[in-house]
Amino acid sequence: MKKNTSSYFFISIMVAFIVFISSPGTGMAQSRSADLIQEYSNKANQFIADKNYEQAALVLEELLIKKPELNNEMVYKQMTHIYDDYLFNFEKALSLYKKYLDQFPEGIFAGAFRERVAYLNERRSEWQVLRDFRKVQLEEDHIPIKDSLEEVETILSKNEDRLTAPEMHIYLANNYFKTADYQKASEHVEKYIKNFDKASMSNTDKVLALQLYSDILVKQHRFGKAIRALDQAMELGKPEENFTYALKKNHIINQRNMLYGFMFCLLYFITVVLLLIPIKFWRRFNLQKYAGWLVTPSLLLALISLGPVLILHLIEEPEVDLRIFFGQLGLSILSLMIIKLLAPLTSKTGRWVYVLISCLHMGAASFMAYYMTVYSGRKIVMNTVIEADVDPAASLFLMLMWSSAAAALLINIIYAIILSKKEQMARI
């Protein structure tokens, strides 16, 4: 019994000794392997930084020869990146993608690599076109953007029906947008969008294209289509991005309203200028009976700025505070009373009063545009945290406008009284 116990004790000691001897060796071997990988990876990165892509690929190839069973995903990622994105050796890149998937079927990059394999296989007959296009992309930072656009346009003109064409369209759309050539940018992004169902595109690519299209349309002042493009992007995008889309949509609506405000202000200004011309001038053209008719459109234009706001309120587009616009309505009525009672156009004083009231109208219309765009947009952002019922800026501006109108009315009443007394004294 003692002999068996001694034998078991001796075997246990030997096993422990072997484990003790082998463990440090295994750890050291793993450490040496990691150091070797790091060394080769650093060399490859240095060659990439120097734009010596062939040498970078050779360094990593040498590493794979030394370590044929290399269990490091990042090395494969680095190699495929070099062959696919820099050397445009799609055959080699494809073989490395497949080798990675065989070795790491559930690896970190497995999903992306499978998509890349499908992409390259689908476009195998177009590899030369893809190389030409990628070379332009690779060198775009070193040549004028105009030259790169011309080169891609030339490639695209010969390969309009290829699967690679949508990629060139979106590239051109982005770069034409950067150069402020919005017409060409719009044409190319529209062609890209038409290929949504034909080409294999991810929802992310579609969303980015629709966002670009929306930005281009805003620059072209086509706000309705821009909003529809953004709505389509919202449907394809992720739910957590809806708030960002809502803010951007509100910004587009505000820009549209600013344009409308400017157009109405300009129209009103032109009418004011026409009405400031004395009636005597119109008599030369035998337009005396028509000159009076110009008063009617001026009365309408004084109130017409309310139209877009009320329409927007009915269709529930932006959140607008209608109190400010009803305040402008009151100011318009007061101004018209002053014009009718105390400021005939044939009087010098009347023309000065008309100019003053018209300036007030222009100020009100300008503030309407500002309120609906800059201030309203900022208020919506602030109200996501704090809801404010009182709008101090609008109230202050209304107070100033009403006080100015009241002052103008008072001045004209005093002037009329003084003038009438002078006339009475002159008669005496």
UniProtKB/TrEMBL annotation:
Membrane-spanning residues: 258-279, 291-312, 324-343, 352-373, 393-418
KW Transmembrane (keyword) present: yes
Keywords: Membrane, Transmembrane, Transmembrane helix
KW Isomerase (keyword) present: no
InterPro entries: TPR-like_helical_dom_sf
Protein name per the record: Tetratricopeptide (TPR) repeat protein
Organism of derivation: Paenibacillus rhizosphaerae
